[in-house]
Amino acid sequence: MTTATPTREEPRVQAAPAPAGHLRRVTRWWPAAALAALLAAPYSSLPLPGLLDGPIGSAGSLQLLALCLVFGALATGYDLLLGRTGLLSFGHALYFAAGSYATDVIMIEAGLPFGAAAVLGLLFGIALAALLGSVSLRVSGIAFSMVTLAFAQAGSILVERDPGGVTGGEEGRAVPADRLPASLVGIEHTVNLYWIALAYLVVTVAVVHWAVRSPTGRVWEGIKENERRVEVLGLRPYGFKLTAFVLAGALAAVGGIVHLLLTGGATPQTTTSDFTLSLLVMVVLGGSGSRWGPLIGGVLYTWADHRLGDLAGSGSVAGLPSVLRVPLSQPLFLLGTLFVVVVYVLPGGVARLPQRLRAAARKRS
Predict the structure, then answer these.
(1) Which of 32, 111, 309, 335 is deepest in the core (most CB within 10 A)?
(2) In sequence order, what are the residues at sequence separation of 6 or more whose Cβ sits closer than 8 angstroms to the Cβ of residue 173?
(3) In this structure, are residues 359 and 27 in contact, taking their beta carbons and an 8 Å threshold?
(4) What are phi and psi of 141, to 5 degrees?
(5) What is the largest CA-CA distance in the chain?
(6) DSSP 272-306
(7) Are 242 and 134 in contact (CB under 8 A)?
(8) Is residue 2's pLDDT more than 50?
(9) pLDDT digits 0-9 by tens, 49-86
């Protein structure tokens, strides 16, 4: 009886997927490259036809970029509730408006300088978030969403009724130029406002990243996945949810103060529930629960809102047949169509695009 000795096969060496590895290295460093580009923007005279009306460093372009940065940061802070803790709030606009209106009213009525008024406006926004959050978080789920919506509607009605003539009603309230530092007034100082918006974005991203990676952030993740399990572990979810609520409200109040500088006044549009719904669209568009998704969604939505509004009122659209002119002349129709396309084409938001590209590169390899 002979025993056949099996032949030993050589191990197969699989080549590393070079395209996927190269794509991973590129996507890893894009935040640093984006920050470098934002830092260089005021010094650039490069035109971007179709994206901006003029050169990047022009006053109009910097104004639009600053608004994009503010709303990108605001969406990042809002995602602390929606994407990190699982709290769907319909009243987040209230704290953005609180920072803006409180600073405005304190400057005009109390005659305080901008710095002192901004600090008091921030403290007012934090106190309001702590007060309303402590009430709203007594319930959960859809009831929580409805309570936050009710508070936001009450705030919007209060602003429109203009009690004592302090809010300006439907017209809003402009800030007198002599109440602001001279370096923040005028078109020639738009670059200073841009630096403030960029600083707000950097601080918001840093605070959110630190909070999410902290022990409290891990509890937020547990609450989002299974709140009852967190209770079984001996923790009280209420306190952790209130912490997220107040922190998100504080970041929104700072954003309202920066927005006050950019627009030159407090506007009632920032108090409406539609404004919070816009934040929700920004977060979903970019990718809820991801590190960079809400920021990307806020920037894209704000840019598209302004640019599509210009497109809707352009002469090229006015010359189209009525079957095309009527829908294309409505910016909300264009934004809604863009949102639906992105949701269907990129489930999980724009932030998931690099992962999909890496998966496709691995398949090709």
Answers:
(1) 335
(2) 101, 104, 105, 108, 166, 167, 265, 266
(3) no
(4) 65, -140
(5) 108
(6) SHHHHHHHHHHHHHH-TTSSSHHHHHHHHHHHHHH
(7) yes
(8) no
(9) 878 888 888 998 999 999 999 999 999 999 999 999 99
Query: 172 or 18: which carries more pLDDT confidence?
Result: 172
* 139 φ, ψ (degrees, to nearest 5): -120, 170
Band the pLDDT of 17: cuts 50, 70, 90. very low
Task: Provide the pLDDT for residue 15.
Answer: 47
What SS3 state is found at 243? helix
CA angle 271, 275, 279 (to 5 degrees): 135
What is d(CA 27, CA 6) in angstroms, rounded to the nearest whole number?
47
Q: Residue 13: pLDDT band by 50, 70, 90 thresholds? A: very low
pLDDT at residue 363 greater than cutoff 70: yes
- Classify 267 in phi/psi space as left (phi over 0), alpha (psi -120 to 50) or beta: beta
Tokens of 216: 């409290």
Encoding tokens for residue 273?
A: 């529930």
- Band of residue 251 on the pLDDT scale cut at 50, 70, 90: very high
Q: Residue 123 CA to chain centroid, in angstroms?
A: 21
Write down the H helix ranges in 3-92: 18-28, 30-40, 59-79
Q: Please name the residue that has the structure tokens 């036809």.
A: 49
- Identity at 255, one-letter amino acid code: G
Tell me if 195 sits within 8 A of 189, measured CB to CB: no
- The reported pLDDT for the residue numbered 16 is 46
309 burial type by CB count under 10 A (0-12 exposed, 13-18 middle, 19+ buried): middle
pLDDT at 316: 64
Look up residue 88 and give its two tokens.
Answer: 């769907």
Structure tokens at 236: 């009280």
Is residue 347's pLDDT more than 70?
yes
- Contact present, 158 and 167 (Cβ < 8 Å): yes
Contacts of 174 (CB under 8 A, 6+ apart): 168, 264, 265
Residue whose tokens read 């920072």:
99
Strand partners, 173: 266
